[in-house]
Design brief:
single chain, Jelly Rolls, 7 helices
Length: 273
């Protein structure tokens, strides 16, 4: 009898366990990615005169825009994350990483789980491109196999040119020649382990580079402090009650959701800093 071909999720799990990442993953069509981008940019325009709400939008698009909440529940993303973490999934955060056209902003080499204050590594990040993520626009780079290291020392630079909250960067040498360049078309995603070394360069193109980093966790995870930040349960069930589980957005840019996000941002600031 002929052997059956491995499924996509089996391929994801094998690649992920070996390399610490999977890329690319086809998530939505280019036209759907454009619709998401248009919704985001319309919201940005509406909030242009309100810097606080604009910052919350970029940190919590899935809590403020129903279209982005739906993206976190996309069947392909859920299947990919479930192949690593199992059927029960929460979104710990879903922030945007935007590099404006002709921007010098970079993301230094780092490991995601360095400062999040979670008690385990049962997390994976699906990074969804809403515009082309190319070498020229500053796509992500991964060091295959580096997820097998535990957290290594990091330095906090607080560099204004760094998109990371603390400008954190790995305090050991990373050989750029070892890196895999994870270029993505709009609508594609990558998925990577929280210990994987990764970075990205500047955007030297005339278009924005827009990506959403969706951090899926097992409900068994918890904050080491015992705090309960806002999460969304997007698959399966939560039998642990370690987090505050949010309902889907009240509507588009609702005042109630802004208040929830504002309180959570204050808590996350305490956890991260």
């Amino acid at each position: 009898m002929a052997q059956s071909q491995p499924t996509a999720t089996q391929h994801y799990a094998e690649s992920y366990n070996r390399d610490g990442f999977v890329a690319p993953i086809d998530v939505v069509s280019a036209s759907k990615a454009k619709t998401l981008r248009d919704d985001l940019e319309a919201a940005e325009a509406e909030l242009a005169q309100d810097p606080e709400k604009l910052a919350l939008l970029r940190s919590y698009p899935d809590r403020l825009l129903p279209s982005f909440d739906a993206l976190t529940r996309n069947d392909t993303l859920i299947a990919a994350a479930s192949s690593i973490l199992g059927a029960d999934l929460m979104v710990w955060s879903g922030s945007l990483f935007i590099k404006e056209a002709n921007s010098t902003k970079i993301v230094s080499w780092h490991q995601d789980l360095t400062y999040w204050g979670l008690d385990d590594a049962e997390e994976t990040t699906c990074w969804v491109a809403l515009s082309p993520a190319t070498v020229e626009s500053g796509c992500m780079k991964f060091v295959p196999g580096s997820h097998k290291k535990k957290i290594v020392p990091h330095n906090d630079t607080f560099d204004d040119n760094n998109l990371l909250s603390r400008g954190q960067e790995i305090a050991v040498d990373v050989n750029e020649a070892d890196a895999f360049t994870a270029a993505l078309d709009a609508g594609q995603a990558s998925m990577h382990h929280g210990h994987l070394f990764h970075s990205s360069g500047p955007n030297v193109t005339d278009d924005r580079r827009i990506g959403m980093a969706i951090r899926y966790i097992k409900p068994s995870m918890k904050q080491k402090t015992g705090d309960k930040p806002l999460v969304a349960l997007v698959s399966g069930r939560d039998d642990h009650n370690h987090f505050t589980v949010a309902n889907p957005p009240d509507g588009r840019l609702s005042e109630r959701d802004f208040e929830l996000c504002k309180r959570d941002k204050e808590l996350k600031a305490k956890l991260l800093f």
